[in-house]
Design brief:
With 356 residues, this protein is an alpha+beta fold. It has a domain at 102-220: Trypsin-like serine proteases (Thrombin, subunit H), CATH 2.40.10.10. It contains six helices and 16 strands. Helix 1 (2-21) runs antiparallel to helix 2 and helix 2 crosses helix 6 (342-355).
Length: 356
C-alpha cells in the first residue's frame, strides 16, 4: 500500500507540472504509425491515439490514474496466475512417483550383515544414504542380532552341544548397489562402519568406509520438509527378499500409528507392498523426498496390505540423538542432510519464470 501511495503521489506531481507548462505527454497528435514495414505515412489508417493531459481537470486526472492502477493490478494478477501455472507444471512433472525408482537408485543400498564367528547368524536388509559424505540410515533390527548358537562340548567319545544366546552389532556390514542402473553398480562391495543405534526407534546410523568412486559426493535422499497426510502417494524402495533393489508403490493409509512397546515410535501405514529385506529402506513421496523408514508389516489371513514405515520426525530426532551421543563421547559428528518439498517446486518455477 505504501508503494502504491508513493507511485500515486509521483505521478500526480508530474501531471500537475505538465498542466502548468501546457505540455502534452505524448506530443503532436498528427504523429502516426504505419503497418507497412516501418515507414510512416499520413494517409495510414492506423494512427497513435494520444491524450492531451494539459486540458484535463484534477478529477479527470485522478480517474485516469485510477484506471492505470487498475491495469497494473490486473497485470500483477496475471503474473500471479502465470506463476501458479508454472509451479503446477513443475510439480506435475514430479508426481510421476515411479520415476524415483530410477533417480534414487544411487542412494539405496542392499545390505548384508554377518558375524563370522557364528555360522548361523546373518541378515539381509536395506539402507539408504542421507548425506553427501556417506552417512546411511537403516533399521536397528537389521544390524543388531539376537540369536542362539550351538557350542560343541566333547566328553570322551560323546559330543554334546551347549546352547548359548548371543547379542550384538554385526562385525561385518557390507553393501552393494543395483547392478543394472547405479553409477556404483560395478560389483564393488562397500564396507559400512557402525556409528549409533537406538532400539526404541529401531534405527541405526552407519557410515560408508570407502571413498566416493564417482564424483566428489555420494548421492543422498533428501528429507521431506512438509506434512505427510493420509492419501499421499508413497514409493517404497529396498532389497526385497534379499534379491536386490525393487520398488513398490501405494498411498499413505494413515499416520501416527503406534503398536509397539516403545512409546517413542510412531509409524506411517501404507498399502505399498513390503517384503522381507525391505527393512531399513526409504519410503518417499511425489517430490522424491523421504517421509519414513520402511520397518515392518502385519501378516495374517485376515489382513492385507498393512505395511509400516517409521515417521520422518522420529528419524530426525534419532539423528539429533546420534549427534549428541557422539559429542558426549568426544568424537563429534556432523550429519548434514538436505530437505525438499513443495517449496522446491515453487523455487524451480521462479527460476523458470526468470529464465523466460
Amino acid at each position: 500500500m505504501r508503494k502504491r501511495l508513493i507511485v500515486f503521489a509521483t505521478i500526480m506531481a508530474v501531471l500537475l507540472t505538465l498542466c502548468i507548462t501546457g505540455c502534452s505527454l505524448i506530443g503532436d497528435n498528427t504523429d502516426s504509425l504505419a503497418n507497412n514495414g516501418g515507414s510512416t505515412s499520413s494517409s495510414s489508417s492506423a494512427s497513435v491515439r494520444t491524450t492531451d493531459y494539459s486540458s484535463m481537470t484534477r478529477e479527470d486526472l485522478e480517474t485516469a490514474l485510477t484506471k492505470y492502477i487498475d491495469i497494473c493490478d490486473k497485470q500483477a494478477d496475471l503474473l500471479t496466475d502465470y506463476k501458479k501455472i508454472v509451479e503446477e507444471a513443475v510439480a506435475n512433472r514430479e508426481t510421476k512417483i515411479g520415476a524415483y525408482a530410477t533417480t534414487l537408485v544411487d542412494c539405496v543400498m542392499n545390505l548384508t550383515c554377518v558375524e563370522p564367528q557364528y555360522t548361523n547368524v546373518g541378515c539381509q536388509g536395506s539402507g539408504f544414504i542421507i548425506t553427501e559424505d556417506g552417512y546411511v540410515i537403516t533399521n536397528n533390527h537389521v544390524v543388531y542380532y539376537e540369536a542362539e548358537v550351538y557350542e560343541p562340548i566333547s566328553t570322551g567319545w560323546i559330543t554334546r552341544y551347549n546352547i548359548r544366546r548371543v547379542t550384538g552389532v554385526y562385525s561385518s556390514i557390507t553393501a552393494v548397489f543395483d547392478s543394472e542402473s547405479s553409477y556404483y553398480g560395478n560389483g564393488t562391495v562397500y564396507n559400512l562402519q557402525f556409528v549409533y543405534r537406538d532400539p526404541d526407534y529401531d534405527l541405526a546410523l552407519l557410515k560408508i568406509v570407502e571413498e566416493v568412486p564417482v564424483g566428489d559426493e555420494w548421492s543422498a535422499v533428501p528429507f521431506y520438509d512438509g506434512t505427510t497426510k493420509r492419501g499421499d502417494e508413497v514409493l517404497v524402495l529396498g532389497n526385497a527378499d534379499g534379491k536386490g533393489l525393487s520398488a513398490t508403490a501405494g498411498i499413505v493409509s494413515a499416520t501416527g500409528k503406534t503398536f509397539t512397546d516403545s512409546p517413542k515410535l510412531t509409524f506411517i501405514q501404507t498399502d505399498a507392498a513390503i517384503n522381507g529385506g525391505n527393512s531399513g529402506g526409504p519410503a518417499v513421496n511425489i517430490y522424491g523426498a523421504l517421509i519414513g523408514v520402511v520397518n515392518s508389516k502385519f501378516v495374517s489371513t485376515s489382513i492385507e496390505n498393512m505395511g509400516f514405515a517409521i515417521e520422518l520426525s522420529k528419524v530426525e530426532t534419532f539423528i539429533a540423538d546420534a549427534i549428541k551421543d557422539a559429542a558426549d563421547k568426544g568424537t563429534p559428528i556432523t550429519v548434514a542432510y538436505t530437505t525438499k518439498g513443495a517449496g522446491a517446486a515453487a523455487t524451480n518455477a521462479e527460476e523458470s519464470e526468470q529464465a523466460a
